[in-house]
Here is the input.
Amino acid sequence: MSPVALHTLFEALAYAVGLRTFLWTRRKLAPQAFAHDDHVAWVGVGAIVGAALGAKLAFWIDDPLAAFRDFPALWHLLEGKSIVGALLGGLAGVELAKKIAGVRNSTGDAFVLPLTVGMCIGRVGCFLAGLNDHTYGNPTALPWGVDFGDGVPRHPTQLYEIAFLLAQYALIHARRVALAEPGDRFRAFMLGYLAFRLLVEFIKPLPYAYLHALSGLQLLCLAGLLYYHRDLPRILRVLFARRGAWEPR
Here is the structure.
C-alpha cells in the first residue's frame, strides 16, 4: 500500500474511532449538556464545519506561498490542512452552535478522549506517509532519528506528538476529580496541546516565517493560549499540585 493510501486509511480510521468514542463519552460525561438529540446535532455540525474551515485557514496562514501558488487557481488552496486549525475552528464552531441551539452547559469534556484517540491514530498515518505528509521534523543526529526516505535522519515529530497526547490524557484523567468545573478537562487539553505544538514547531521545517522566527501555526497556538489565558494559572495549579493538595478529603 502506498504512503498516501496508508495516510488516507488511518485518517478515516481516526474519524471513525473518534466519533464512536465521542458518542460513548458524551453519554457518560455530559448527558445534561446533550439533553436533546438536536443539541447533539447542532454541536456536531458546529464542530465539523468549524474544524474543516479552521484546518484549511491554518494551512493558508502557515504556508501561504504553497497555498496561493498559481492563484486564482484553487487547487493548491484545497491541498493542505492542520490539526491546530481544526481544533481552534472546531472550538469556534461549537461555541457558535451552542448559542444558536441555546445550550448553556459545557460540552468540551466529552471531546477530550475522542480527540486524543483520533489524533493518535491520525499521527500514525502521518508517520507512515513519510515525506509526503510534511509533518516530519528537522534533521537530527539523535539515535532515534528516522529516515523518511531521503537518507536524512529526522525528528519523528509525529511520534513525539503521540507520546505527548497519551501522557497528557493520563495526567488529565488522574486529575479528573480536581478538574471539577465543567469544561476544565477540555481547557487542560487545549492548553497542553497548543503549548506542545508551539514548542515542537521549532524543530520542524519553517514553511514561511512571520516576525523572522515564527510559523503561522505558532501564531495560531499563541492566539489559542491567549484565549485561555484566564484559565491557565488555575489549570496549572490543579494539574501539577501535590497529590494531597487536590484530592478530595
